[in-house]
Design brief:
The complex is a heterodimer of chains A (212) and B (232).
Chain A (H helix, E strand, L loop, with lengths): L20 H16 L6 H8 L5 H25 L5 H27 L9 E2 L8 H22 L6 H24 L15 H8 L3 E2 L1
Antiparallel strand pairs in A: 1-2
Helix pairs in contact in A: 3-4, 3-5, 4-6, 5-6, 5-7
Chain B lengths: L10 H10 L48 H32 L5 H27 L12 H5 L1 H23 L6 H24 L16 H8 L5
Helix pairs in contact in B: 2-3, 2-5, 3-6, 5-6, 5-7
The chains are: A mainly alpha (212), B mainly alpha (232).
């Protein structure tokens, strides 16, 4: 496993009662893969185990980028969408505040782990704020993608504490997703299991909204 | 399940684990995959689990974050049994509510059915996982008469409480799961429970995010007393 991307290489050696989580994870995955072949794994689990997260700091920076995007999205929506209903406005306000809190928490966590938090990306949401319908449609995409991004990356996390923090954020993203979906008249969930997405797929999905 | 005092979780956790996972069946050393696929895109859980071909009298540590291989599988099995118990409870609850026709609002009744279907999928997936880990799936006896007698409002309030509790329960266990594959499956369920909780909170006039921006976990010791009233 390569740690080229690690912002803080020493994190690879974090011990959980005697053995790094990653070492355990890789041993199990490699052993099982060699016996059964990973092609038979269902898509959501495959996405979650196929990637090398690159260390907790890299995963947290990935999450931070998404949270920056979401926070900017709701901040701009509250200023830019002219026909926001009362319900949509109060929800957007709550979501903006939550995403901003996530940005703050992730920034602090990365710093406390000795890493360097990424800067806020430049953003361009196109016509998403033309009206409430367009805004809520993209909001649903962001929240569902956010859930899948965390669910895909979380099993790569080595530290139980960081995993717990990521879990506490993803549950809130899922709550957001359900609320937005309700406003959109959509089912709150697509079946009993939320998908996991690989980091690269998530980055590709949000690329149209990032201005470098 | 024999547990080593030094590495086992606290006494409350251990007690809860024993209660829900008193299944020390010896297991062959194996690596096994669960294939629980259904026609309509149901879950397939993939897992690699190392069992101990010895009996449970080994000096291995118990559940939790200990990193000795045999105990890892045992710890995960206990967690999956616990999750299965909660999912059975949720499924039984919605079935009882639907059968009794307590929810009069059509849209809400449909939501209850959709959530019931999600919970049933969770039961099916976790049942398969328990078996693949060498355990015997547990099915609790449940009773929701008291809630049903309380009428629609009490039913909805209870549903919201149960979903928030379920989401917190998964969050409490996630960092304790050793198998990456079981963790991925638990996370896929956890966020759906969060969706249910938010929707039901809205229905009963509560905020979708009762803990604010960061959801709080709940330990087994915190969860079990709250579900006890529904266990017959």
């Amino acid at each position: 496993m390569s740690h080229d991307k690690l912002a803080a290489p020493e994190l690879a050696a974090i011990d959980i009662e005697g053995m790094s989580r990653q070492a355990f994870i890789m041993r199990g995955a490699v052993a099982a893969g060699s016996v059964y072949g990973l092609s038979t794994v269902s898509p959501f689990v495959r996405a979650a185990i196929a990637q090398d997260g690159g260390g907790d700091v890299d995963i947290l920076n990935f999450a931070l980028t998404l949270e920056y995007l979401e926070a900017a999205f709701y901040t701009q929506a509250l200023k830019g969408v002219s026909d926001l209903s009362g319900d949509a406005k109060s929800l957007a306000t709550e979501l903006r505040d939550n995403e901003t809190a996530h940005v703050d928490a992730l920034t602090k966590t990365i710093t406390s782990l000795g890493g360097k938090p990424v800067k806020a990306p430049g953003v361009d949401f196109g016509d998403a704020f033309a009206n409430q319908k367009a805004f809520l449609a993209l909001a649903q995409t962001f929240e569902d993608t956010g859930v899948s991004a965390y669910n895909g990356a979380a099993p790569m996390i080595e530290s139980p504490e960081v995993l717990g923090a990521a879990g506490s954020i993803v549950q809130v993203e899922a709550r957001h997703a359900a609320a937005i979906r309700s406003l959109n008249g959509q089912p709150i969930a697509d079946g009993g299991f939320d998908k996991a997405l690989e980091m690269q797929d998530v980055l590709d999905a949000v690329k149209p909204f990032v201005k470098s | 399940m024999t547990q080593h005092a030094d590495t086992a979780p606290g006494p409350h956790e251990r007690g809860a684990l024993h209660e829900l996972a008193d299944d020390p069946a010896s297991r062959k050393r194996f690596l096994r995959m669960v294939g629980g696929t259904g026609a309509a895109g149901a879950l397939a859980i993939f897992m690699a689990a190392c069992g101990d071909d010895d009996d449970s009298s080994s000096n291995s540590a118990g559940s939790g974050t200990s990193m000795q291989e045999p105990s890892q599988a045992k710890g995960d099995l206990a967690i999956v049994q616990y999750a299965l118990t909660l999912e059975h409870l949720e499924t039984d609850f919605y079935n009882a509510v639907i059968d009794a026709g307590v929810i009069k609002d059509m849209a809400l009744a449909d939501t209850a059915k959709m959530i019931r279907d999600n919970e049933q999928e969770h039961v099916d997936a976790l049942t398969g996982t328990v078996k693949q880990l060498g355990g015997t799936p547990k099915r609790p006896k449940t009773n929701f008469d008291a809630v049903l007698e309380g009428g629609e409002q009490m039913v909805l309030k209870t549903a919201a409480e149960v979903e928030n509790l379920g989401a917190a329960a998964y969050l409490g266990q996630a960092p304790r799961i050793n198998s990456k594959e079981i963790l991925a499956a638990a996370l896929a369920i956890h966020s759906v429970e969060g969706r249910h909780a938010a929707a039901l909170n809205s229905v009963v006039g509560e905020t979708i995010v009762p803990d604010g921006a960061f959801a709080k976990p709940a330990s087994m010791a915190e969860v079990l007393p709250k579900v006890k009233p529904f266990l017959a």
